[in-house]
Amino acid sequence: MLVLLSTKNYMLVSVFVMFGTFLPFMIRFERKKVQGRELVILAILAAVAAVSRVPFASIPSVQPTTFVIIMTGFVFGAESGFVVGTLAALVSNLFLGQGPWTPWQMYTWGMIGLCAGLLRGTWIKTTVIGRVIFGFITGILFGWVMNLWSFISVGKEITYVEVLAYYGASIYFDLAHALSNVFFLLLFAKSWLKILQRFKTKYGLLDQ
User: Fold this and answer.
1) pLDDT tens track for 52-82
2) How confident is the model at residue 196 (pLDDT cuts 50, 70, 90)?
3) Is 109:69 a contact under the CB 8 Å cutoff?
4) How does DSSP classify residue 121?
5) pLDDT per residue over 104-136, tens digit each?
6) Counting beta carbons within 10 angstroms of the beta carbon of residue 145, is it exposed (0 to 12), middle (13 to 18) or buried (19 or more)?
7) What does each C-alpha distance from 190 to 6, 111, 127, 186, 198 come to in angstroms?
8) Cβ–Cβ < 8 Å for 102, 89
9) Cα 14 from Cα 20, distance rounded (Å)
10) Which contiguous run of DSSP H or E holds residue 108?
11) Which of 15, 66, 114, 207 has the lowest tally of Cβ within 10 angstroms?
């Protein structure tokens, strides 16, 4: 039977890949001339994204965290979306428990915020169907990336059959995340976009 993953160095390599991917964005954000008021707004959004995860902890994969991260990227841009996504994972796990899975959550939510920012000038942001499609896909992809962490943490070689079985078993949780994203986007996206855009205009925050 073919072997898909071997445990030799995969944990170390995966960590280097993740940090190597998002460090440039963190450095670029750090070097920007970010206004104090913008930092305050982003800190508040990161706190909202993190804390909103806690009350839903008893319902696996159902929480508005991804919604808040997507809205941040849509309005404030890719770098801000990435920063809020990474901070949301780190801060929420202060309540729910830190572990070796935290960098994976930081990476995945950060990339969701980044992609939302990159797509904010397209129909993905401006139409209901675009936002729904984006929310659904990111909910599924979040679970798929976190599954990779599960494979690496097993501590043994993983076969294709085991991978298919694992992804099949996780489909409920992936769908729950995707559908919760759709729910929050349908109900709150329009009002959140208006509110965040109003803050952006009021305080003269520049596009990234």
Assistant:
1) 988 888 888 899 999 999 999 999 988 889 9
2) very high
3) yes
4) T
5) 898 899 999 999 999 998 999 999 999 999 999
6) middle
7) 46, 22, 10, 8, 12
8) yes
9) 10
10) helix 102-118
11) 207
Query: Tokens 């508005």 appear where?
Result: 64
Q: In angstroms, rounded to a whole number, what is the distance separating the alpha carbons of residues 76 and 57?
A: 28
Q: Which two tokens stand for residue 151?
A: 């494979």
Local structure of 175: helix, strand or coil: helix
The one-letter code for the residue type at 133 is I
* 67 token code pair: 């919604």
Token reading at 136 = 């659904």
Is there a contact between 37 and 191 (Cβ–Cβ < 8 Å)? no
Sign of CA dihedral 23, 25, 31, 34: negative
Query: pTM of the prediction?
Result: 0.84
The amino acid that residue 44 corresponds to is: I
